[in-house]
Design a protein that fits this description.
- With 223 residues, the protein is an alpha+beta fold.
- It has 8 helices and 10 strands.
- The strands form 3 sheets. It has a 4-stranded antiparallel beta sheet with strand order 1-8-3-6. A 4-stranded antiparallel beta sheet has the order 2-7-4-5. It has a two-stranded antiparallel sheet with strand order 9-10.
- Strand 9 and strand 10 form a beta hairpin.
- Helix 5 packs across helix 7, helix 5 packs across helix 8 and helix 6 crosses helix 7.
- The longest helix has 24 residues.
- The two termini are 28 Å apart.
- The relative contact order is 0.15.
């Protein structure tokens, strides 16, 4: 979740008013700052965590793996004071996603126990978590539902369209990671990408797939 109030939502005005108080609460519950290098795990799937992590700037990836080695990468986030571990904080369950630093970054390590006590004393601050979790849940559900219901070519195109509208979560643009993000193999991913390129919808740019023709993209996605 993002620390700053999301631009939309029923409680945006109240959250904007409470933002300085929420920032002070997070700072008061912070234990220390830690630097992470590219490839280091901030949170590891399956482990118990008694901390939350606030990343002001930098890029992190979110992924889930199974024992066979198959990896599903939800995407990368360009952090703007992003908080990780909020789901585990409220549910007291093991970490659901691997959170891995993709760039060198600093994270403020927040004590879950201190934060829980602070929220009990100032329950209005839970509005930040409730509003952000609702927004992030709908965003993630939109991604995973599309993955289930549509073919890979459609999902590649749809992701580029989402990225054009707003950029809360971006792909790594590395072939192997892109394939993992769509839950498939590199061979299948390349075939789906070629289908879009042949139709003039997508072009293969220096940093990965790019929109070649917005009109064709909208028609393909039936938008």
């Amino acid at each position: 979740m993002q620390q700053e109030p999301y631009p939309l939502g029923r409680f945006h005005a109240e959250l904007s008013r409470l933002a300085p108080k929420f920032s002070q609460a997070l700072q008061a519950c912070s234990l220390f700052d830690r630097r992470y290098l590219p490839g280091e795990f901030i949170m590891r799937q399956g482990e118990q965590s008694e901390h939350l992590y606030l990343v002001a700037t930098g890029r992190v990836s979110l992924s889930s793996a199974v024992h066979s080695g198959r990896l599903f990468q939800l995407g990368e986030i360009a952090c703007q004071r992003q908080i990780f571990g909020e789901m585990e904080f409220f549910s007291a369950t093991p970490v659901q996603w691997n959170v891995v630093a993709q760039t060198e970054l600093d994270a403020s390590v927040i004590c879950a126990h201190k934060l829980a006590q602070r929220l009990l004393a100032e329950p209005e601050l839970t509005l930040f978590f409730a509003s952000a979790l609702a927004s992030d849940y709908l965003d993630t559900l939109d991604i995973t539902t599309s993955r289930l219901l549509h073919p890979i070519a459609y999902n590649i195109a749809y992701e580029l369209w989402r990225e054009r509208q707003r950029t809360p979560m971006l792909g790594s643009r590395k072939r192997a990671h892109e394939a993992a993000r769509f839950g498939t193999t590199e061979r299948v991913y390349r075939r789906a990408l070629k289908e879009l390129i042949d139709q003039g919808i997508v072009q293969d740019g220096e940093d990965g797939p790019q929109i070649a023709d917005v009109t064709r993209l909208r028609h393909y996605l039936a938008l």
